[in-house]
Fold DUF502 domain-containing protein.
Amino acid sequence: MNDDNPDRLSLATRLRNNFLTGLIICAPIAITIWLTWTFIHWADSWVKPYIPNRYNPESYLQFAIPGFGLLIALVVITLIGFLGKNLIGRSIVSYSESILHRMPLVRTVYKSTKQIFETVLKEQSSSFKKVGLIEFPSPGTWALVFVSTDAKGEIAARLGEDGEEMVAVFLAPTPVPTAGFLMFVPRSKLKLLDMSPEEGVKLLISAGLVTPEYKTAATEEAEKAVNPPAET
Protein backbone atom coordinates (compact mmCIF):
# COMPACT_ATOMS: atom_id res chain seq x y z
CA MET A 1 0.00 0.00 0.00
CA ASN A 2 2.91 2.30 0.59
CA ASP A 3 3.91 1.85 -3.06
CA ASP A 4 0.63 3.39 -4.18
CA ASN A 5 1.02 6.60 -2.16
CA PRO A 6 3.46 8.34 -4.54
CA ASP A 7 1.13 7.68 -7.48
CA ARG A 8 -1.84 9.02 -5.54
CA LEU A 9 0.06 12.11 -4.47
CA SER A 10 1.23 12.65 -8.01
CA LEU A 11 -2.32 12.38 -9.33
CA ALA A 12 -3.60 14.77 -6.67
CA THR A 13 -0.84 17.22 -7.49
CA ARG A 14 -1.63 17.09 -11.20
CA LEU A 15 -5.33 17.63 -10.52
CA ARG A 16 -4.56 20.60 -8.28
CA ASN A 17 -2.22 22.13 -10.85
CA ASN A 18 -4.79 21.64 -13.61
CA PHE A 19 -7.46 23.26 -11.44
CA LEU A 20 -5.25 26.26 -10.66
CA THR A 21 -4.35 26.64 -14.34
CA GLY A 22 -8.02 26.54 -15.29
CA LEU A 23 -8.81 29.06 -12.56
CA ILE A 24 -6.16 31.45 -13.87
CA ILE A 25 -7.66 31.17 -17.36
CA CYS A 26 -11.35 31.32 -16.44
CA ALA A 27 -11.39 33.81 -13.55
CA PRO A 28 -10.18 36.89 -15.49
CA ILE A 29 -12.56 36.09 -18.36
CA ALA A 30 -15.52 35.63 -16.01
CA ILE A 31 -14.73 38.80 -14.03
CA THR A 32 -14.31 40.83 -17.23
CA ILE A 33 -17.63 39.59 -18.62
CA TRP A 34 -19.39 40.26 -15.31
CA LEU A 35 -18.00 43.80 -15.00
CA THR A 36 -18.85 44.61 -18.62
CA TRP A 37 -22.37 43.19 -18.28
CA THR A 38 -22.92 45.07 -15.00
CA PHE A 39 -21.73 48.36 -16.53
CA ILE A 40 -24.01 47.91 -19.57
CA HIS A 41 -27.07 47.25 -17.37
CA TRP A 42 -26.15 50.20 -15.13
CA ALA A 43 -25.96 52.52 -18.15
CA ASP A 44 -29.22 51.14 -19.56
CA SER A 45 -31.02 51.69 -16.25
CA TRP A 46 -30.03 55.38 -16.31
CA VAL A 47 -30.71 56.15 -19.99
CA LYS A 48 -33.68 54.00 -21.02
CA PRO A 49 -36.27 55.75 -18.80
CA TYR A 50 -35.66 58.97 -20.76
CA ILE A 51 -36.07 57.40 -24.21
CA PRO A 52 -39.59 57.90 -25.64
CA ASN A 53 -41.42 54.63 -26.21
CA ARG A 54 -41.79 55.23 -29.94
CA TYR A 55 -37.99 55.42 -30.30
CA ASN A 56 -37.27 52.48 -28.03
CA PRO A 57 -37.03 49.25 -30.08
CA GLU A 58 -37.93 47.23 -26.99
CA SER A 59 -41.46 48.64 -27.31
CA TYR A 60 -41.87 46.70 -30.57
CA LEU A 61 -39.85 43.62 -29.67
CA GLN A 62 -40.54 40.86 -27.18
CA PHE A 63 -37.04 40.96 -25.69
CA ALA A 64 -34.66 43.49 -24.22
CA ILE A 65 -31.61 44.79 -26.10
CA PRO A 66 -28.65 45.02 -23.71
CA GLY A 67 -26.46 48.03 -24.38
CA PHE A 68 -29.04 50.10 -26.26
CA GLY A 69 -29.11 52.72 -23.52
CA LEU A 70 -25.31 52.84 -23.43
CA LEU A 71 -25.21 53.31 -27.21
CA ILE A 72 -27.70 56.19 -26.99
CA ALA A 73 -25.63 57.78 -24.21
CA LEU A 74 -22.45 57.60 -26.32
CA VAL A 75 -24.22 59.13 -29.31
CA VAL A 76 -25.73 61.96 -27.22
CA ILE A 77 -22.40 62.75 -25.50
CA THR A 78 -20.59 62.80 -28.85
CA LEU A 79 -23.31 65.03 -30.35
CA ILE A 80 -23.09 67.45 -27.42
CA GLY A 81 -19.31 67.58 -27.85
CA PHE A 82 -19.76 68.37 -31.55
CA LEU A 83 -22.30 71.11 -30.87
CA GLY A 84 -20.13 72.53 -28.10
CA LYS A 85 -17.40 73.37 -30.60
CA ASN A 86 -19.43 75.79 -32.72
CA LEU A 87 -20.49 79.32 -31.84
CA ILE A 88 -24.08 78.50 -30.87
CA GLY A 89 -23.01 75.54 -28.75
CA ARG A 90 -20.35 77.54 -26.94
CA SER A 91 -22.91 80.27 -26.22
CA ILE A 92 -25.30 77.74 -24.70
CA VAL A 93 -22.53 76.16 -22.62
CA SER A 94 -21.35 79.58 -21.40
CA TYR A 95 -24.89 80.57 -20.44
CA SER A 96 -25.42 77.28 -18.59
CA GLU A 97 -22.11 77.69 -16.76
CA SER A 98 -23.02 81.23 -15.75
CA ILE A 99 -26.19 79.88 -14.12
CA LEU A 100 -24.25 77.17 -12.27
CA HIS A 101 -21.67 79.69 -11.06
CA ARG A 102 -24.43 81.64 -9.29
CA MET A 103 -25.39 78.64 -7.15
CA PRO A 104 -23.34 78.61 -3.92
CA LEU A 105 -22.89 74.84 -3.42
CA VAL A 106 -23.32 73.67 -6.99
CA ARG A 107 -20.64 75.97 -8.41
CA THR A 108 -17.96 74.47 -6.15
CA VAL A 109 -18.81 70.91 -7.19
CA TYR A 110 -19.04 71.90 -10.86
CA LYS A 111 -15.74 73.78 -10.95
CA SER A 112 -13.86 70.98 -9.20
CA THR A 113 -15.34 68.25 -11.38
CA LYS A 114 -14.73 70.17 -14.60
CA GLN A 115 -11.14 70.92 -13.66
CA ILE A 116 -10.47 67.25 -12.91
CA PHE A 117 -11.92 66.07 -16.22
CA GLU A 118 -10.10 68.76 -18.20
CA THR A 119 -6.80 67.83 -16.56
CA VAL A 120 -7.19 64.08 -16.97
CA LEU A 121 -8.66 64.07 -20.48
CA LYS A 122 -6.50 66.81 -22.00
CA GLU A 123 -4.61 65.29 -24.92
CA GLN A 124 -1.30 66.93 -24.09
CA SER A 125 -1.57 66.32 -20.36
CA SER A 126 1.21 64.35 -18.70
CA SER A 127 -0.84 63.56 -15.58
CA PHE A 128 -0.62 59.97 -14.36
CA LYS A 129 1.53 58.99 -17.34
CA LYS A 130 4.58 58.27 -15.18
CA VAL A 131 5.17 55.86 -12.32
CA GLY A 132 7.74 56.34 -9.58
CA LEU A 133 8.93 55.33 -6.13
CA ILE A 134 9.14 57.39 -2.96
CA GLU A 135 10.37 56.50 0.50
CA PHE A 136 7.21 55.88 2.49
CA PRO A 137 6.28 55.50 5.33
CA SER A 138 9.90 55.51 6.58
CA PRO A 139 13.38 55.80 5.05
CA GLY A 140 14.42 52.59 3.33
CA THR A 141 10.82 51.57 2.61
CA TRP A 142 9.60 52.37 -0.88
CA ALA A 143 6.05 52.88 -2.15
CA LEU A 144 4.74 52.96 -5.71
CA VAL A 145 3.19 56.28 -6.78
CA PHE A 146 1.68 57.81 -9.90
CA VAL A 147 3.06 61.21 -10.88
CA SER A 148 0.27 63.76 -11.17
CA THR A 149 1.86 67.11 -12.01
CA ASP A 150 4.32 69.71 -10.78
CA ALA A 151 3.30 71.56 -7.66
CA LYS A 152 1.76 74.93 -8.49
CA GLY A 153 0.40 78.04 -6.81
CA GLU A 154 0.69 78.49 -3.08
CA ILE A 155 1.86 74.92 -2.47
CA ALA A 156 4.81 75.39 -4.84
CA ALA A 157 5.65 78.72 -3.21
CA ARG A 158 5.41 77.44 0.37
CA LEU A 159 7.23 74.15 -0.15
CA GLY A 160 9.77 75.41 -2.68
CA GLU A 161 11.21 78.24 -0.60
CA ASP A 162 14.62 76.55 -0.57
CA GLY A 163 14.61 76.19 -4.35
CA GLU A 164 13.59 72.53 -4.36
CA GLU A 165 11.03 71.63 -7.04
CA MET A 166 8.02 69.77 -5.66
CA VAL A 167 5.95 67.16 -7.49
CA ALA A 168 2.39 66.04 -6.76
CA VAL A 169 2.05 62.25 -6.64
CA PHE A 170 -0.83 59.90 -5.97
CA LEU A 171 -0.18 57.05 -3.54
CA ALA A 172 -2.75 54.30 -4.14
CA PRO A 173 -3.42 51.37 -1.77
CA THR A 174 -3.36 47.67 -2.60
CA PRO A 175 -5.36 45.87 -3.95
CA VAL A 176 -8.02 48.50 -4.81
CA PRO A 177 -6.24 51.61 -6.17
CA THR A 178 -9.37 53.75 -6.37
CA ALA A 179 -8.58 55.76 -3.23
CA GLY A 180 -5.34 56.95 -1.76
CA PHE A 181 -3.26 59.93 -0.72
CA LEU A 182 -2.20 63.08 -2.56
CA MET A 183 1.40 63.81 -1.56
CA PHE A 184 3.90 66.51 -2.48
CA VAL A 185 7.49 65.30 -2.59
CA PRO A 186 10.77 66.87 -3.72
CA ARG A 187 11.67 65.93 -7.25
CA SER A 188 15.06 64.69 -6.04
CA LYS A 189 13.30 62.19 -3.75
CA LEU A 190 11.23 60.71 -6.59
CA LYS A 191 12.64 57.75 -8.51
CA LEU A 192 10.92 57.52 -11.91
CA LEU A 193 10.33 54.05 -13.37
CA ASP A 194 10.18 52.85 -16.96
CA MET A 195 6.94 50.89 -16.45
CA SER A 196 3.69 52.28 -17.83
CA PRO A 197 0.77 53.35 -15.59
CA GLU A 198 -1.14 50.25 -16.73
CA GLU A 199 1.73 48.03 -15.57
CA GLY A 200 1.87 49.95 -12.30
CA VAL A 201 -1.85 49.34 -11.70
CA LYS A 202 -1.37 45.62 -12.39
CA LEU A 203 1.49 45.55 -9.91
CA LEU A 204 -0.67 47.22 -7.25
CA ILE A 205 -3.78 45.10 -7.79
CA SER A 206 -1.78 41.86 -7.72
CA ALA A 207 0.07 42.93 -4.54
CA GLY A 208 3.38 42.57 -6.34
CA LEU A 209 2.67 39.20 -7.94
CA VAL A 210 2.39 40.53 -11.51
CA THR A 211 5.71 42.26 -12.14
CA PRO A 212 6.26 43.93 -15.53
CA GLU A 213 9.18 42.68 -17.56
CA TYR A 214 12.27 44.85 -17.30
CA LYS A 215 15.36 44.56 -19.45
CA THR A 216 18.57 46.24 -18.40
CA ALA A 217 21.10 47.54 -20.88
CA ALA A 218 23.29 44.48 -20.22
CA THR A 219 20.38 42.14 -20.93
CA GLU A 220 19.54 43.90 -24.20
CA GLU A 221 23.17 43.74 -25.33
CA ALA A 222 23.28 40.02 -24.50
CA GLU A 223 20.09 39.41 -26.51
CA LYS A 224 21.51 41.34 -29.47
CA ALA A 225 24.67 39.24 -29.32
CA VAL A 226 22.66 36.01 -29.38
CA ASN A 227 20.11 37.23 -31.97
CA PRO A 228 21.78 39.94 -34.08
CA PRO A 229 19.37 42.09 -36.14
CA ALA A 230 18.93 41.00 -39.73
CA GLU A 231 20.80 43.05 -42.29
CA THR A 232 18.68 44.89 -44.84
User: Anything to note?
Assistant: The mean pLDDT is 81. DSSP finds seven helices and five strands in the chain. Strands lie at 130-135, 142-150, 166-171, 181-186, 191-192. The helical segments are 5-47, 68-83, 87-101, 104-121, 153-159, 197-205, 217-226.
